[in-house]
Specification:
Elements (H helix, E strand, L loop, with lengths): L26 E3 L2 E3 L12 E8 L8 H15 L5 E7 L3 E8 L2 H9 L9 H12 L5 E8 L10 H10 L3 E6 L9
Parallel strand pairs: 3-4, 3-6, 6-7
Antiparallel strand pairs: 1-2, 4-5
């Protein structure tokens, strides 16, 4: 049985590392080396992505900047074969726009997010991973938040387990205030 293993390789500074071959990798399962039967750089494979945006009270002041950045990200990244699901999360998680490649619908969703007082971060990771689970190919969850989990029914181990089971790569963008004296 073939199992897809998607990887992103970065250096110590977080920059992507290119030019790797099958010989640069060792794959093990429960400590037992496994044969890499097929190795390829799949840039044309469709991408299924969930964009989960924190809309709790603490990020309200940054919403305009985040929405603008998210729109630019979608315009630069989304290809016709890709699908994106937009979630907002505060005290609860809500699917704003289901999987689509329709940029205008996604931009509408970014302009129509709901706000609330708390941050159900782990619920967003769990539900975003569940939404991605039935999709084939590359599955990515991008989470934009400013902090920790303050609401919801899911704990960190449950959220992590669902992401792993669903074969989802999780990327977090942390929105932190920068003080004037930070340099």
């Amino acid at each position: 049985h073939l199992v897809n293993v998607f990887v992103n390789v970065t250096d110590a500074n977080g920059a992507p590392v290119g030019g790797l071959t099958k010989d640069d990798f060792v794959l093990t399962e429960d400590g037992v080396p496994q044969k890499i039967s097929y190795f390829d750089r799949e840039t044309n494979m469709p991408l299924s992505m969930v964009l989960a945006i924190d809309t709790s009270g603490s990020v309200r002041k940054d919403t305009g900047v985040e929405v603008h950045a998210a729109k630019q990200f979608l315009r630069g990244m989304l290809r016709p074969q890709d699908r994106l699901d937009l979630l907002d999360f505060n005290s609860t998680v809500r699917e704003v726009v289901p999987f689509t490649a329709d940029l205008r619908h996604l931009e509408w969703g970014l302009d129509n997010m709901d706000f609330g007082p708390a941050t159900a971060l782990y619920d967003a990771i769990y539900l975003g991973s569940q939404n991605l689970a039935p999709h084939q190919g590359r599955k990515v969850l991008v989470v934009i938040s400013d902090g920790g989990n303050t609401a919801g029914d899911t704990n960190f181990p449950q959220a992590l387990d669902e992401a792993i089971r669903s074969e989802v790569m999780v990327y977090s963008l942390i929105d932190l205030p920068i003080m004037n004296d930070a340099g």
